[in-house]
Amino acid sequence: MTQYQLVTAGKEKLNEHNVPDADIDAELLWLFVSKQDKMAYIMNRQEDVTETIRSSYEALIDKRSKRIPLQYITGIQCFMGYDFETTPDVLIPRFDTEVLVEQANRLIQDIHSDKMSVLDMCCGSGCIGLSVALMNQNIHIDLCDISDSAIALTTKNAKRLEVSDYTVIKSDLFDKIDKRYDMILSNPPYIESKVIDGLMPEVRDYEPRLALDGDADGLKFYRAIIENAESYLNEKGYILFEIGNHQAHDVQQLLVDKHFEDVRVVKDLAENDRVVIGRKA
Questions:
Q1: Torsion angle, CA of 38/43/49/50, rounded to 10 degrees?
Q2: How many angstroms separate the CA atoms of 242 and 234, rounded?
Q3: What whole-number distance in Å separates Cα of residue 191 and Cα of residue 185?
Q4: What count of Cα atoms within 13 Å lies in the side-chain half-sphere of residue 249?
Q5: pTM above 0.85, yes or no
Q6: What is the C-alpha separation between 155 and 168, in angstroms, rounded?
Q7: For the purposes of burial, counting CB atoms within 10 Å of the CB of 257, is it exposed (0-12), middle (13-18) or buried (19 or more)?
Q8: Half-sphere exposure (CA, 13 Å, Cβ side) for 244?
Q9: Strands 116-121 and 139-145
Q10: How far is CA 155 from the centre of its chain?
């Protein structure tokens, strides 16, 4: 069997199981197991495969057929151009979340401070805070999460990516935080509890509910963070949230009610509300 025939069989099996983007995932799994890049595959796709590598590839296709997310199979997700390790213990970094990092970068560059202190709350894999740190050499980043697994993975990603100025803290929101910041970033759990069982299998069955469930209205963690954020922000410090695309009004109002200024919403590339920003009065 050639590489092309094997990948084609993989695509067919994924399609039979209604896997989204079956063609793309079948190729990506082949590149992962064969340790080739796309160009090498194009050049070599008529070459025969060994029984060992065929068996390895088919095992990965079986996993994906069960709707296990591709990123949990390969253990890697690219985010902001950096490869982050990811595990079933944390939320998979998503392209939409890059909007939060981009907005943080713009504010950091506009402020022109010699040194800034930034907190990534509910850090998960660390993709938000570590990306900001890698793109801005003038910040110290603290990353916190309640999950031991998230803390371990964030620490591992920080070391892999050679982030130089960071601290990882196990904390239930602000419970173990004892300083003020120029900026707080957060992508907290924000999905309404009743909605989770209707999500696609990759999310519903495999991503950690702890990182998804925002309680009955999806706003539990926004309320808790905003209620206390003023005490942990420096004068004119910023807070930036990722939000669900129907939550902009509610999260904005929570910030306004706590007297935050310059409260605004930023859309993602699909024109969905994605980030809410506020500045401490």
A1: -90
A2: 21
A3: 18
A4: 1
A5: yes
A6: 7
A7: exposed
A8: 18
A9: parallel
A10: 15
Per the document, the length of the chain is 281
In contact, 183 and 238? CB cutoff 8 Å: yes
Average pLDDT by stretches of 10, the chain with 281 residues = 96 97 97 95 94 97 98 97 97 97 96 92 98 96 98 98 97 97 98 96 96 96 98 97 96 98 97 97 91
Please give the structure tokens belonging to residue 131. Answer: 């990306």
Token pair for residue 201?
Answer: 């299998």
Q: 3-state SS of 46-68?
A: CCECCHHHHHHHHHHHHHHHCCC
Taking a C-beta distance cutoff of 8 angstroms, is the pair 255, 263 a contact?
A: yes
Q: Alpha helices, DSSP H only, in 35-180? A: 38-44, 51-65, 70-74, 98-111, 127-135, 148-160
The CA distance from 236 to 242, in Å, is: 20
